[in-house]
Amino acid sequence: MRVATWNVNSAKSRLPRLLAWLDQRAPDVVCLQETKLSDQAFATTFDSALAERGYQVAHFGQGRWNGVALLSRVGLDDVDRGLPDEPCFPEPGSSPDARAITATCGGLRVTSVYVPNGRTPDDPHYGYKLRWLDALRAMLASGTPGSAVVAGDMNIAPTDADVWDPDLFVGSTHVTPAERAALGELMALGLHDVVRERWPGHRVFSYWDYRAGRFHQDKGMRIDLVLVGADAAGRVQAAWVDRAARKGSGPSDHAPVIVDLDEAPDGDIGPVVPPPTTPAKLPHLS
DNA sequence: ATGTCTGTAGTATACAGA
């Protein structure tokens, strides 16, 4: 089963690339972020094209900003939009952003997340980001973290190895100790950062600013993560960033992250087997 | 270091967010 996540930076403007990518990579479950469409506009634009490709769809949008979706051809059940007790920005008086959608797909509880950016550490949005991450942690803790898959734009670089120039980012959002601690609280539920586990010590980025030729120079950040609980962690066969999807004309500023899982035994996830320490055949990066 | 892209408002070009 192939699981993928992609911050498309507007599903409407990414329409041709998104459909071509689905045909090329054939993911079974897709987490999308920053669709920037209302539910109705997403349905109008995508429902028939996705149905033709065998996908069930759940979208949670608000129009201009944010917007997340799940596509699945291995079942899409028990959809939850948003988080319990989700914080809002700005408080008071606003309603929750469209930043999380959860469903059961192929026996896993999959959440597509678009974590708040935070802007700068002294901006009120930064506190909102930390509260939002805590609400995500609380939702996962109240469920069954072993079956969880959390995939999306975390807007956090887990370590300095996940930033092209750590010195330049000191004091900036995405790398502060409080953000990394909040990510650590998620991981403490038993989640695995499967791309980093597959590529320890490698230069692996998922986001490159449009400006200043950053992609061409591979000056990026790894902020799009696939975090999986124990059930899926023992089934990981490949985990990589689809850097090719960032190339050419009209790309998103994020690349997809793709994770391949062995099939679960019939009706039973089975005993958890730790991932092999020697990578098997893996796609070539760069 | 802030060079780009996106959507919106509104009709040309500005603004905000990332």
TrEMBL record:
Endonuclease/exonuclease/phosphatase domain mapped to chain residues:
4-254
Q: Which UniProt keywords apply?
A: Hydrolase, Magnesium, Manganese, Metal-binding
Residues annotated for Mg(2+) binding in this entry: 7, 34, 153, 155, 253-254
* Region annotated Disordered, chain positions: 245-286
The UniProt site entry described as Transition state stabilizer is assigned to 155
Instruction: Tell me the GO BP annotations in alphabetical order.
Output: DNA repair
Please give the family membership noted in the entry: Belongs to the DNA repair enzymes AP/ExoA family.
Q: What is this protein called?
A: Exodeoxyribonuclease III
- What's the record's note on cofactor binding? Probably binds two magnesium or manganese ions per subunit.
Q: Which residues form the active site?
A: 114, 153 (proton donor/acceptor), 254 (proton acceptor)
UniProt site (Important for catalytic activity): 224
Q: What is the lineage of its organism?
A: Bacteria, Bacillati, Actinomycetota, Actinomycetes, Pseudonocardiales
Q: Which GO terms describe its molecular function?
A: DNA binding; double-stranded DNA 3'-5' DNA exonuclease activity; endonuclease activity; metal ion binding
- Say which species the protein is native to: Pseudonocardia asaccharolytica DSM 44247 = NBRC 16224
Cofactor(s), by name: Mg(2+); Mn(2+)
> Which residues does the annotation list for site: Interaction with DNA substrate?
254
> InterPro entries, alphabetically?
AP_endonuc_1 (IPR004808), AP_endonuclease_F1_BS (IPR020847), Endo/exonu/phosph_ase_sf (IPR036691), Endo/exonuclease/phosphatase (IPR005135), ExoIII-like (IPR037493)
Q: Its gene? A: xthA
